[in-house]
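Weekly structure sync - notes
Attendees: PM, LS, DV (DV joined late)
Agenda: review two folding runs queued last week.

Item 1: First target. Sequence and structure tokens pasted below for the record.
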Amino acid sequence: GNIFIADKDAHAVRKVNPDGIITTVAGTGVAGDNGDGPAIECQLSSPNGIWVMEDGTFYILDLGNNYIRKVDKEGNLTTVFKDSNGISIGRGLWVSQSEDLIYYASNSRVKRWTPACGIVEYSAGYSSLGAVVVDPSGHLVATDRTGNRVCRVNEDGSKDVIAGNGLSSGGGDGSVATETGIHGVRGIW
């Protein structure tokens, strides 16, 4: 029943409980990196993506620090990995239930992380990515925010457009999804 918010410009993650009460669950409100520990004592820098597990564990795309971080049920923050090449305009973040596969957006590229292989560029050629999610069939789906499209990513990293005509208008209700304008699409589920 909780809702988590990546509060990018406030350098924090907030939680709104079912009673409507908001609390800070990660970050100090000051941009920086003072290491791992109790999440509310750890600095973040422009957290711009979040993924929440059923048990309340959540992951943060810590954009300004180029980290993917994890906050456990007890409120402890740990760095899962750092992207030494940087995360550019990252928003989308998806973590598998087994926590051994992570996809995240970095501007025009989707990157994939596993403990065995580390970080690899998985899919490229987007204008500027929004969200990423894995569909019930196991395919990654990504929104190309400024490309005005939604793409399904194949195993080899190639992509197929499943919605959007690349424009901000055209088509509409009852039209073919790939012939319909979707302006600045960001979210997907």
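Item 2: Second target, run right after the first with the same settings.
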Amino acid sequence: GESWEPNHLEIQRVQISFPRLRRPIRIVHLSDLQTDGIGAMQLAARKAANEFDPDIIVFTGDVLNHSSLIPEVGEYLRGFSHRHGAFFVSGNVDGILPPKKFCREAGFEFLDGSARTLDVDGARLGVMGLGLSGFRDSWTLERLVLETKTADIRVLLSHVPDALEIAKNSPVHLLFSGHTHGGQVCLPWIGPIITLSGVPRAIAAGGLHQIDGLKVLVSRGLGMEGHIAPRVRTFCRPHLLLVEIIPEK
């Protein structure tokens, strides 16, 4: 829990079919890096992400545990490659950052409360972000949906997966979240002990889930809770999500 598991990355590849696509759209989902320093596991995650050749990268918050690591982590994030953009929404521990400056220097776009529509080989991809305090804000979500009214596919970023409660009744297709660390400490056949989330435990445990028409992708994160919390992961390895939206047959 202190040495082996926190340093052994699990890469989960997910395919989701969608009509009217000319080619697959590839999305790398990062979350909860919450690092005390960049090491072999973090570098392996970046290598796998770059080999996936993503169209976009989404980072759903909680980037580091100590402000002294800002230069090192910024340099690490600049090494991620993409075709059409990298987007970031803030998490619980990101108050120690100057978020817009950090994102700009790390090569990410700070997306709290804003949206972008991208042309990905003829498909219009709407990317929307809810800030940490806005995961229950249906008015902001409605505004972001209007700002992406030309999009064929809408993806929503929210650090907290509880945003599914407002997203499941909206024209959002995919929700990307983190926050739970998959429980970080889990029991075999039972799963997470604590998730700090109101979503069902199975969803908080990570991976792909469907709620009504909404696909929910929760990352267990790459790092661990910092400060006075013990640096342990048990039955809950660091998690990189490689998501491919493929043309529907």
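Discussion on item 2: The mean pLDDT is 95.
Action: LS to circulate a short write-up before next sync.
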